[in-house]
Amino acid sequence: MKEIAFILLDRPVTWAEATLGVASISVALLMLMLLSSWRGGRGRALEAAIAAERAREMDDKVAEMNRLQSEMTGRMQSMAEILSTRQGDLARLVADRMDGLSHKVGQGLDQNVRQTSESLGKLQERLAVIDSAQKNLTDLTSEVVTLKDVLSNKQARGAYGQGRMEAIIRDGLPSAFFAFQPQLSNGKRPDCLVTLPGDGRGLVIDAKFPLESFTLLRGARGEEARKSAAARVRADVGVHVKDIAERYFLPGETQDLALLFVPSESIHADLHEHFDDVIQKAHRARIMIVSPSLLALAIQLMQSLVRDARMREEAQVIQSEVGKLLVDVRRLGERAEKLDQHFRQTQDDVAGLRTSAGKITSRGERIVALEFDDAKAEPTLPFAEGLALKRAAE
Predict the structure, then answer these.
(1) Do residues 204 and 246 touch, judged by C-beta distance below 8 A?
(2) What is the DSSP code (8-state) at residue 200?
(3) CA pair distance 269, 275, nearest whole angstrom
């Protein structure tokens, strides 16, 4: 054992020392291994505990997540049901709105169609009116041409003025109050003689107004030509006014006023605007120069006078008719009063019928309310039976 095993650091080491050292080293290593194993077991236990804690926390979190997921699932299902219900309501609402909108659109289209049809009808009517107006315009153009031809002829122009004057008078007065081309006591024949009620004298209307000078005046070119035409107008109108005053003013037969008819409004306006001296001369001669509108106005005034005269003449007849009308109205009131009495009597009779019907109904109800089965089972006293009969009789 004391043999030298090896030399360590210049020191000989025996086998015993080497064995002891090896044993010491082994024991130390074993101790280190045990310590290391103990520490490793403790660390593993700690790690296992930590892992278990983590697993438990994880399980809690998973359970919490599962709970949240189940809650979320329930909420999602509730939300899905709510959404499904809302979707159904929305679908019904949209369908209702679409139906209403379709109905309104249909009504709007129908209304638009009707309005379009009416507009087209009105447009057709207006086109027809335009066509008629165009036709009238064409006819008027031809009439104007004809009128120009008429005015160029003196005899035709006189007939035109006479016809227009006669049309105005016929439209305004009854035929008994005027006469065309009558013969006066001096043998003259005025164009028209109007007789007013209450006065035997007639009003003379002359339609032979001289238009040649006005035609020359309108066609004149230059100052000298216009002056010459104006002088001719004054001379012609003055001569015609003098002729009317000499021919048609007959004391006791005609009025001391006469009318000179001008068949053109424009000529009458030119005469009043540029020839005031002629107008004043005619007024002094008690002759009024009238246009178609003024003649129509004078005829309307005469018509009112004729109407008033007829009203005065027929006053007694009207009064008699009014008296008869009052008698008829009084008789109508008496008949209405009798009819009212009949209505009141009828109402009283109907009220009596309603009262009788109510009594019959109440008695029938009392008869229906009687318990006949109990009456058969239980004997009734004579006075009770008599009372029941009396009630039934009532």
Answers:
(1) no
(2) -
(3) 10
Residue 171: C-alpha distances to residues 180, 187, 361 (Å):
14, 28, 77
**pTM for this one?**
0.42
Sequential DSSP letters for 278-300? HHHHHHHTTEEEE-HHHHHHHHH
Long-range contacts of 167-174 (CB under 8 A, 24+ apart): 168/292, 168/295, 168/296, 168/299, 169/194, 169/205, 169/295, 169/299, 171/299, 172/296, 172/299, 172/300, 172/302, 172/303, 173/299, 173/302, 173/303, 173/306, 174/306
Per-residue pLDDT tens digits of the chain, which is 394 residues long = 556 655 666 666 666 666 777 777 777 777 877 777 777 667 677 777 787 777 777 777 778 888 887 888 878 788 778 877 877 777 788 778 777 777 777 777 778 777 777 877 787 787 788 878 777 777 766 655 444 544 444 444 456 677 788 888 888 888 888 888 888 888 888 888 888 777 778 888 888 877 777 777 777 777 888 888 888 888 888 888 888 888 888 888 888 888 888 888 888 888 888 888 888 888 888 888 888 888 888 888 888 887 777 777 666 677 777 778 788 888 887 887 887 787 788 888 788 878 888 888 888 888 877 754 444 444 444 444 444 444 554 5
Which runs of consecutive H residues, i.e. helices, occur in 153-194?
154-172
Q: Could you give the angle at the alpha carbon of 161 between the alpha carbons of 156 and 166, nearest 5°?
A: 120
State how far the alpha carbon of 238 is from the alpha carbons of 203, 206, 210, 321, in Å: 20, 14, 10, 54
What is the C-alpha to C-alpha distance for residues 271 and 261, in angstroms, rounded to an integer? 13
Distance (Å) of CA 176 to CA 195, 196, 304, 306:
8, 10, 15, 11
Q: Cα–Cα distance between 1 and 89 in angstroms, integer? A: 108
* Amino acid, single-letter form, for residue 392: A
| R_g of the chain computed on alpha carbons | 67
